[in-house]
């Protein structure tokens, strides 16, 4: 692994000071993404800033009922927190479907938001990749793209966003709190990750020198919730298609619904078309399938990933069915 | 008070002699940003060790190359196989993806200290006995990591003892030989022994 300087910071203003505003520095918390990619020479920080001593390890309920999660809360801790289990089960299920026991113990909430794609061409510095080296081309477009996205792609990048946690957060609704040299700001979770468009190297709305300090979950939506993850093996594998669904019922009709997708899109994906198709409608299998179709209206398949359109629709229909069953229970 | 063990050799590149020995080691700094080593104290298996390590040294390499604790294995070196699993503050973690310098103040336990750390000072940890009894290995390379994960999840009240839960909890530890059936039998057996008939 290439050499880098290591600095440990004790206070947030120390972490985000103006002198960090250059690309050669990277924050480290759990390290599960950063050190993996530094070993591959995909990320090349000159300096690594250890933020694990910052006071960002609490989970607290705000006065308005939202849940404020410190960026250093581990994936394990968040998934098994009593309030998350009770009020945000879709998020707990999403977290526990990701990675392994050991990695979840290490990985932080903020780090999971910053997780990088698993596209094998991105992870191989010898291959052209517009995300890693802008302007070099996308190897996946005409390469092996079985694992790649069908939603939100561009002619420059079709890499999927790998996180399960983020899909759960999109469904639950959340706000990111960012601390930077010029102060604090908040960004809606859905707006944080960027589509690849003409600039796949721009993955998120984090300005140089900024640090994610908290994720604030919306007030609990209630209803029935479910995270369904479909993949090549039943555990310790990234999603081929996943769906986070939250369904509230008014009698036999769907009064409120949230649908988010993973494994099929270039960012954690809110399927608003599916939500609009189902809201106010009877909670029937036929309507679940209609909502699933709506989510993939704009999907674009490449040479090896056309199956993801079918798989993604099935993930939505099944997740809606199971979330509805829980809403009725 | 735990004894402090000072390591004067084999510590990377604090002396010219050591540098020659360790020039090819992954812990060694290379490239133009040769960053200075730093002195840290790690608590491993109940003993404190004063070490001189590079900022980019991962815990796995320090355990093996500076503390000669070879039980912890390097498999993939990318968090995909679990062979490097150790305990940090009682939780199973992948030591290949942790910087050693960030573990000061933590309680680190490796397979060499597993039995003693759990109070089985003169013998094996129940997980180790169960792996023997169930022949839960073939080549043995993944075994230390398997046992460290098993020992951690057995103590975790949030992980149920049914087969599906244990398989999921163990799934971060890959066995290329495919000894999974016996591994799972061993974990269930050890769990039963340690937690009684719940």
Automatic annotation (TrEMBL), chain A:
Signal peptide: none annotated. SUPFAM superfamilies: CO dehydrogenase flavoprotein C-terminal domain-like, FAD-binding/transporter-associated domain-like. InterPro entries: CO_DH_flav_C (IPR005107), CO_DH_flav_C_dom_sf (IPR036683), Diverse_Substr_Oxidored (IPR051312), FAD-bd_PCMH (IPR016166), FAD-bd_PCMH-like_sf (IPR036318), FAD-bd_PCMH_sub1 (IPR016167), FAD-bd_PCMH_sub2 (IPR016169), Mopterin_DH_FAD-bd (IPR002346). The keyword Flavoprotein applies. GO terms for molecular function: FAD binding; oxidoreductase activity. Residues 1-222 form the FAD-binding PCMH-type domain. The keyword Amino-acid biosynthesis does not apply. Keywords: FAD, Flavoprotein. Pfam families: CO_deh_flav_C (PF03450), FAD_binding_5 (PF00941). This is Xanthine dehydrogenase YagS FAD-binding subunit.
From TrEMBL, chain B:
It comes from the Bacteria. InterPro entries: 2Fe-2S-bd, 2Fe-2S-bd_dom_sf, 2Fe-2S_ferredoxin-like_sf, 2Fe-2S_ferredoxin-type, 2Fe2S_fd_BS, Aldehyde_Oxdr_Iron-Sulfur, Beta-grasp_dom_sf. Keywords: 2Fe-2S, Iron, Iron-sulfur, Metal-binding, Oxidoreductase. The keyword Ribosomal protein does not apply. Residues 38-114 form the 2Fe-2S ferredoxin-type domain. Gene3D superfamilies: 3.10.20.30, [2Fe-2S]-binding domain. Residues 1-37 are annotated as: Disordered. Residues 18-29 have a biased composition (Low complexity). SUPFAM superfamilies: 2Fe-2S ferredoxin-like (SSF54292), CO dehydrogenase ISP C-domain like (SSF47741). One of its GO terms (molecular function) is oxidoreductase activity, acting on the aldehyde or oxo group of donors. The keyword Disulfide bond does not apply. Pfam families: Fer2, Fer2_2. PANTHER family: OXIDOREDUCTASE WITH IRON-SULFUR SUBUNIT, OXIDOREDUCTASE, IRON-SULPHUR BINDING SUBUNIT-RELATED-RELATED. This is Xanthine dehydrogenase YagT iron-sulfur-binding subunit. It comes from Kushneria indalinina DSM 14324.
């Amino acid at each position: 692994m290439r050499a880098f300087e290591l600095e440990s910071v004790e206070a947030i203003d120390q972490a985000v000071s103006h002198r960090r505003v250059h690309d050669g520095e990277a924050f480290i918390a759990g390290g599960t993404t950063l050190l993996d990619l530094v070993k591959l020479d995909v990320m090349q920080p000159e300096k690594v800033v250890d933020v694990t001593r910052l006071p960002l390890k609490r989970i607290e309920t705000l006065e308005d009922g939202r849940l404020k999660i410190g960026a250093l809360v581990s994936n394990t801790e968040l998934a098994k927190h009593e309030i998350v289990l009770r009020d945000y089960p879709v998020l707990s299920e999403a977290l526990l479907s990701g990675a392994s026991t050991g990695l979840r113990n290490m990985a932080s909430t903020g780090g999971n938001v910053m997780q990088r794609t698993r596209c094998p061409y991105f992870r191989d510095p010898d291959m052209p990749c517009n995300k890693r080296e802008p302007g070099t081309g996308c190897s996946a477009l005409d390469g092996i793209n079985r694992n790649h996205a069908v939603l939100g792609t561009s002619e420059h990048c079709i890499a999927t966003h790998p996180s399960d946690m983020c899909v759960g957060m999109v469904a639950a609704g959340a706000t990111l709190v960012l601390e930077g040299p010029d102060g604090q700001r908040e960004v809606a979770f859905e707006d944080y990750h960027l589509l690849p468009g003409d600039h796949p190297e721009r993955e998120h709305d984090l300005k140089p020198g900024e640090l994610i300090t908290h994720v604030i979950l919306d007030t609990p939506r209630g209803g029935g919730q479910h995270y369904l993850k479909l993949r090549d093996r039943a555990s310790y594998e990234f999603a081929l298609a996943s769906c986070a669904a939250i369904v509230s019922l008014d009698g036999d009709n769907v009064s409120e619904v949230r649908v988010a997708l993973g494994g099929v899109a270039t960012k954690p994906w809110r399927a608003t078309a599916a939500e609009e198709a189902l809201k106010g409608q009877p909670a029937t299998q036929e309507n679940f399938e209609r909502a699933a179709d709506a989510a993939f209206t704009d999907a674009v398949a490449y040479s090896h990933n056309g199956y993801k359109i079918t798989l993604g629709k099935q993930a939505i229909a099944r997740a809606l069915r199971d979330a509805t069953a829980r809403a009725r229970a | 008070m735990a004894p402090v063990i000072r390591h004067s050799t084999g510590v990377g590149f604090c002396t010219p002699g050591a540098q020659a020995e360790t020039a090819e080691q992954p812990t060694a700094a290379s490239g133009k940003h040769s960053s200075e080593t730093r002195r840290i104290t790690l608590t491993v298996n109940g003993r404190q060790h004063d070490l001189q390590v590079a900022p980019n040294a991962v815990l796995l390499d320090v355990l093996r190359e500076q503390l000669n604790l070879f039980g912890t294995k390097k498999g993939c070196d990318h968090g995909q196989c679990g062979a490097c699993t150790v305990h940090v503050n009682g939780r199973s973690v992948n030591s290949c993806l942790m910087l050693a310098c960030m573990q000061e103040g933590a309680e680190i336990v490796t397979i060499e200290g597993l039995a003693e750390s759990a109070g089985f000072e003169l013998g094996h940890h129940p997980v180790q006995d169960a792996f023997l009894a169930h022949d839960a290995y073939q080549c043995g390379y993944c075994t230390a990591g398997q046992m460290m994960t098993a020992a951690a999840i057995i103590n975790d009240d949030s992980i149920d003892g049914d087969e599906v839960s244990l398989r999921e909890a163990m799934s971060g530890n890959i066995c290329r030989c495919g000894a999974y059936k016996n591994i799972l039998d061993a974990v269930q057996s050890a769990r039963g022994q340690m937690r009684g008939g719940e």
